[in-house]
Amino acid sequence: MSAQLLLVDDEPGIREAVKDYLQESGFSVQIASNAVEGWELMQVNTPDLVISDVMMPQVDGYQFLKQLREDPRFKALPVVFLTAKGMTGDRIQGYQAGVDAYLPKPFDPDELVAIVENLLARRAAKPATTADDLETPDIAELANQIAQIKALLTQRNAISQSPAPFKIDLTPREQSVLNLVAEGLMNKEIARRLETSVRNVEKYVSRLFSKTGTNSRTELVRFALEHGLAK
């Protein structure tokens, strides 16, 4: 299966030319005309590597990279900058922000392919983070959260409900995941129940944390029970 790349560039001509060359080199490529669109695509399908222009309107490459590095899902994702700016200071800023490679325009497309292949090979050589690692970073903490959720469930009927303090719109799939989290199931069990990947479940749980302002499964379940979100 070919590596999945995300290409973000606001110049249509460059975007299409680079996309075509990468596809001819055997990669699967999604394109976005700006960082906001790129971020939205990444919520649906996490790429293996991101190639981004730096000088873009609204959200530039540095801001986009910062957004990626602050999200646990994308912290280690390889990122290549394409830019017309080739000054040493600009390259240093990119590396300090966490970019993996920096290619000034105009560039040789074969060099870009070589950079992409090298970064993907290095990533593949690293010990893989398994779904279980993502779900159970600390066995003791996991056991503690499960125990707390089970305790909450035994008190479910005694918990008084009130409207949520802010508007929360959940997609049908987010609602399904929330319901199963509120049953005390972990990501692997939820993935089996919904016939999807653990990676996708992790993505939905992260979205639920973000939408409810919670930071753990226990907090999420408590919030859901107190505000009638779990069905």
TrEMBL record:
Instruction: Give start and end of each HTH luxR-type domain.
Output: 163-228
User: CDD domains annotated for this entry?
Assistant: LuxR_C_like, REC_Ycf29
UniProt keyword list: DNA-binding, Phosphoprotein, Transcription, Transcription regulation
Positions bearing 4-aspartylphosphate: 53
Q: Which domain of life is it from?
A: Bacteria
- Domain Response regulatory, first and last residues per copy: 4-120
A single Pfam family it belongs to is GerE
The protein's matches in InterPro entries, at most eight in alphabetical order, are given as:
CheY-like_superfamily, Sig_transdc_resp-reg_receiver, Tscrpt_reg_LuxR_C, WalR-like, WH-like_DNA-bd_sf
Secreted keyword on record: no
Q: Would you tell me the protein name for this molecule?
A: Response regulator transcription factor
